[in-house]
Amino acid sequence: MRFPVRAITLDLDDTLWPFAPIGARIERVLDDWMRTHSPATATMFPIEAMRALRERVWRDHPHLAHDLSALRRMTLEIALRESEGDMTLLDAAYEAFYAERNRVEFYPDALDALERIAAQVPVVALSNGNADLARCGIDRHFAFQLHAREHGAAKPEPSIFLAACERLRCEPNEVLHVGDHVDADVRGAALAGLRSCWINRVQATWPHDDVAPDLHFDTLAALADWLERR
């Protein structure tokens, strides 16, 4: 398929790197940090209890679903307070989390493909997560980054896609959104009027009848190939 692409909006988690290993490391690092700096908190909230607390906070504050940083910070605040820990440790505890959150391990094809894509068109990071491009070492490849937290709504809300298009000064159908998530990325972008590319590394089957991705690849490198051929 051939169509004009003036810019690309790009998902981060599970598109450039797998998130599951990061999430598992975060739990271990926070547990170790609490055992060193706030043992009472670590005793009351070992890994499984801290995970349950985090899930409860997520569930009890759906209005913050677009702001994962606020939800994480709230989880740490509650854990410290309920364990009668030192509340002045909150900032340091959050930094321990955030440093690990940004220690990413890219898919083997991702960095080279990102560089090749960015050489063709402007690339915007469009993420529901809270990764920091500079800390991840890839900010030079992006025109800008638009977080759900910054925008006030998360994918698949059309407004976040359209806000990126407006900032790019492109019509939606001139922008290709690239991501792994069937609904948040691909279907959401298509319903907002953007072109869509599904990076399907796990060989899943497309589940929807009302929309379909304009492009479908199993690696980001394949998208870079398509852009260069175009």
TrEMBL record:
SUPFAM superfamilies attached to this UniProt entry: HAD-like
Keyword Ribosomal protein in annotation: no
Keyword annotations: Hydrolase
Gene Ontology molecular function, alphabetical: hydrolase activity
Signal peptide: none
Keyword hit for Hydrolase: yes
InterPro entries per UniProt: HAD-like_sf, HAD-SF_hydro_IA, HAD_sf, S-2-haloacid_dehalogenase
Stored NCBIfam families: HAD-SF-IA-v1, HAD-SF-IA-v3
Annotated protein name in UniProt: HAD-IA family hydrolase
